[in-house]
Structures are given as C-alpha cells and as structure tokens.
Specification:
There is one protein chain. Helix content is 38%, strand content 16%. It has helices at 28-39, 56-72, 83-89, 103-110, 124-132, 158-166, 183-188, 197-200, 206-221, and strands spanning 17-21, 46-49, 76-80, 93-96, 115-121, 137-140, 171-173, 192-195. The longest helix has 17 residues, at 56-72. The N and C termini lie far apart (47 Å).
C-alpha cells in the first residue's frame, strides 16, 4: 500500500485507495464476518486493527483471525500503536500516533520490510519529521468533526495539497470521512481515504459501504468533463 504516488498533477496516473480502520471494540469472530463482507465489496488497500484498550492477548488473537482474511484479498493489516505486537503477530506493519512510540522505535520493532505509518494530525513539522525518520506514509486529520467525540484538530484539504506538491511519500486522510464528503480530499491529493464508522455502521452493510466509497473516489479522480457553453 506504500507505493509512491505519480508526479503531482499527473491525472493519468493519480490514484487514491480506501484504508479501513476497525472499531475500537468488537467480538472477533463476528467482526471477521463483517471484514469479509467489506473486502468483498471492492478495492481496499489496508486494514488497521485499532483495539485501543484491549489486552495484548486480545490483540494477538484478533490479528491471528483477521490477518488470513486480509491475505486472501491482498490487503495489508496493520496493528495500531503496538509495534511489538505487530512484530509478534506477523502482520504487515504498525501505525503509531502522538502518544505511541516514535517512528524510529516502531521501525526498530517491526523491521525494515514492514509498513510504518505515523499520525501527524495537522502538523507539517511532524509529517516532515516522520518522512525523515523513514515512515512509509503519514496521516492527516481529522478533516470532519466526529459524531461521538471532539476532534483534536480541524484540518483543511489544503494540507493535502501542500504535502502532494512537496513530497512523494503517500498520505492518508482520516476523520469522519464518508462517501459524500470524501471527494474534496481525493481531489486535494490524498493517497488513501481512511474510513471506520462509515463502513461498519452502514445500514446496507460493510460491502455496500466499500462499494460506495470506491465509486466516490473514482468520481473524484475522474470528474465529468464540463461542456463549453453553446455559442
């Protein structure tokens, strides 16, 4: 999922893919069914296992169940915030935030061949530091206010444009993103659109939600041509 983007402005080869974030609490076997449904719905680049308050044993057990499902669909699985558990579980990598271990510490734990992603919120400084430390991608957000809690930052799409024009390292946009509101973030240069509740809470099911995101991303990457006015 960490292939570098094409040159900025090259609409022929620009891409953006979906990045799923799990709920913070779930029953593993039941969620495995939801995940299969989601991945059957269309293109997904990555799944982040985000069990914030879970024990090590619960995270390892969830990873053991979910990783084969991701492998079957050629989707990367990352553990959130626990580099040692990511290494122990054999998943594809780790995502670290402001309160977790540093990018360098995460890299040391998971090894050179694993994926390391870093939350940068609205900070250009943190993003550049992460890139210099060897991150495989940076994440910006929240772009929209969450329904259930107060976002730490309020980020504008211009941050994605700045990053796209400055760096080749991929970036993820996160924060209450839905199919109807993702278009401006895709157009601004997000390489990945992170989604959580918009996937798992969709009344039509996770597969339908993934399909809706894929359609919205495709439409933003290839907007319809505007016909010139008639003389």
């Amino acid at each position: 999922m960490t292939e570098r983007r094409a040159a900025a402005g090259d609409s022929e080869t620009s891409t953006c893919r979906l990045y799923l974030v799990t709920p913070e609490v779930f029953e593993t076997q039941r969620f495995a069914i939801q995940l299969r449904n989601a991945l059957a719905g269309g293109d997904v680049a990555c799944v982040r296992l985000r069990l914030k308050s879970a024990s090590d044993a619960v995270i390892l057990q969830a990873a053991a169940v979910l990783h084969p499902i991701c492998l079957d669909h050629d989707v990367a699985l990352l553990v959130s915030g626990r580099p040692e558990l990511a290494a122990q579980s054999g998943v594809d990598g780790v995502h670290v935030g402001r309160e977790d271990k540093s990018c360098a510490e995460a890299r040391a734990a998971v090894g050179a061949g694993a994926i390391v992603g870093v939350s940068c919120h609205d900070s250009r400084h943190l993003a550049i530091e992460a890139a210099e430390a060897g991150a495989d991608y940076v994440e910006f957000g929240a772009f929209f206010p969450p329904a259930t809690k107060t976002a730490q930052t309020a980020v504008e799409p211009n941050l994605l444009r700045w990053w796209r024009d400055l760096m080749e390292l991929p970036c993820v946009a996160i924060g209450a993103i839905t199919p109807p509101n993702c278009g401006p973030l895709v157009a601004a240069g997000a390489d990945f659109i992170a989604a959580s509740s918009a996937i798992w809470d969709d009344p039509a099911g996770p597969g339908a939600a993934v399909a809706a995101f894929n359609r919205a991303i495709a439409a933003a990457l290839d907007p319809p041509a505007i016909s010139p006015p008639s003389p």
